[in-house]
Amino acid sequence: MRKYELADLAQHDEATALTTRQRTILGDLVALILREGFGGWSVEDFAAELGCSKSTLYAIAASKEQLMRAAVVEYFRGVAERVEARLTAMPASSDALRTYLLAVADELQPASSRFLLDVTSFAPARQVYELNTRLAADRVRALIADGVRAGRYRKVDGAFVGVLTATMMSAIQRGEVGALTGQSDGAGYKALAEVVLNGIIGNPKQ
Length: 206
Prior knowledge:
Layout: H1 7-10, H2 20-36, H3 43-50, H4 54-60, H5 64-89, H6 96-108, H7 113-121, H8 123-149, H9 158-173, H10 176-181, H11 185-200
Helix pairs in contact: 2-5, 3-4, 5-6, 5-8, 6-8, 6-11, 7-8, 8-9, 9-11
């Protein structure tokens, strides 16, 4: 089973060789851009808000563009690690797909609509986001395949359900679902989990 991770992008990422202090600053930067976005911010603005120098930020990445890409990679890497940790820690009797979907919902809650708009508008960050979405679809497909083999789920087209789930996750993150339904993002993710699970749980022979 392929892990839900961003190793493809992180392999050559500058963030992999950070000092402890730099990693702390990068974490603070991630929290900041999740709340406020980054399109209208300069490196000087980030430095002032984080209480560090511009040179400190430039030591993490050589330009604002590279710094934002590093922060977006760090965000999705952290999401992946925490979601996988929840899967590892769940009781043996738990439904892995339900745990996964709800964990992803919880982890994506801090991402503001401003941040997501900036990500989709900035090609290097959008590349990270699109890879994350593809890996989410892969993970869902793998969890469904495991459930079918174990007799917990009906035989369904795991690839289709994976793409459907990832597409809806993207729509929720972009605010499209909330605009149409009035639901919060958290409610949207939980509703998605229920729809997917209700569609695949049943007589395994079907």
